[in-house]
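seq:
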Amino acid sequence: MSTDHIRYDILIETALREVVHQAMGKVVQNGLPGEHHFYISFLTKHPGVEIPDYLIEKYPEEMTIVLQHQFFGLTVDEEGFTVMLSFNNVRERLIIPFAAITTFADPSVNFALQFQNIPSSGEDGETEEPKAESGETSLPPKEEEKRGEVISLDKFRKK
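struct:
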């Protein structure tokens, strides 16, 4: 098999992270419409993540937050988002870069994106960037990387 010099995996991940960016931007402008709500998992020690130390101690690798009823001051920029959430009745500010997100889901419409690091070396010896996968709200188990698979967007459309 030949080497992917175009790096489609990176192009796809960038496009899917832009979906997260745009969805959250709509919430900043209009609030959460209908039953929409977000489950967002992220790497707590990823560069640029700013959360209280006690949350890093409790969630040393990954943490999931829910944006539904009680979140405050959501702002979104090109790099990520900032939000205030209550933990034990104390409001805390979280800063989360889009690159730190491992899962983004909106269960109200059965939509989910899973971003995962699949370490492997290319011909140039560099480690590949994280790969994005899309799936149902109940996220599938991690499988070996599949190359050259065409995924129909029809399976994500409401019928």
